[in-house]
Amino acid sequence: GRLFTAAADLVGAGTRRFLWCHAASLGAAWDAPPNLRAAYVDPDDPPPPAGAAVPDIALEEGADPDLIAGLRHVFAGHLTLLDGCLATLLDAVSSAEHGRAWTVLVAGVRGVGLGLHGRIGCGPLPPYSELVQLPAIVVDHRGRMAAQRYGGLLVPADLAATLLAQAGDAATAAADDDARRGRPLEDLLDTWQRRERDRAVCVARHGTAVATPAWHLVLPTIDDETAVPLLYAKPDDYFEACDVADRCPEVAAELAAVARLAADDPAQAWTRPLSEVATHGVW
User: Fold this and answer.
1) What is the pLDDT along the chain (283 residues), one digit of tens a residue?
2) How far apart are CA 83 and CA 273, in angstroms?
3) Predicted TM-score of the model (pTM)
4) Distance CA 223, CA 278 (A)
């Protein structure tokens, strides 16, 4: 609350052209007021767990579903608190004087396990979407594409390139055609047209992920050639609950080969041609 209030005050003062806020609270403490936690609890549910500590729980088979649901309610309450703090900043931006319009970018750094894949909290977990498919909200200073949702693939560098372009350095933002580098969203904001990415590759501490418009592949370890890939159909399997690697072995093998390239030859992992099925699916 103090962080966003201070940011709102600086916006209102009109003495800054750029503000950077790094709020680490989702990984540091889940300390939202009890009424925000309780807002997500049904009458028949047990009360959510007490305390502000961020959990780090490896869920065994037969784990207590009430504990899982309760911790999800706690997290939802804390996210609601963050939304309210963010609203303080956006209100300041919308009423800013001094003739200066602001672009606001809100982006996540990493996700938090909520029990979908065997863990709750920030402990070790392969790069499922719940960890690497992050929120990114752009409030454009000209109001372009307000309240629209983009369904394509983005990487964090694209957001950095967008900020560069908004600062008037579009040539630098778009100077390199390397697929790993950022591609600004200016064309998307202007015309809803963009040169789409056919993949996003993520090398994480506990595995590698390759996402395409139709699939999300997880290779749980990057050093073991015998690691078994997990494959999920997108966008239907939003929560990645149904591994279809055994039903689509060709796609799993193709994307797993890209994942294994990512550690040793990332340029190849980002540019190696993909088949139509690996990119757009089987339908």
Assistant:
1) 899 999 999 998 888 888 998 888 788 899 999 999 999 999 999 999 999 999 999 998 888 999 999 999 999 999 999 999 999 999 998 887 655 688 899 998 889 999 999 999 988 999 999 999 988 999 888 888 888 999 899 999 999 888 888 877 655 545 456 788 888 888 888 888 888 899 999 999 999 999 999 999 999 985 666 789 999 999 999 999 999 999 999 999 999 999 999 988 999 999 999 999 999 998 7
2) 40
3) 0.89
4) 23
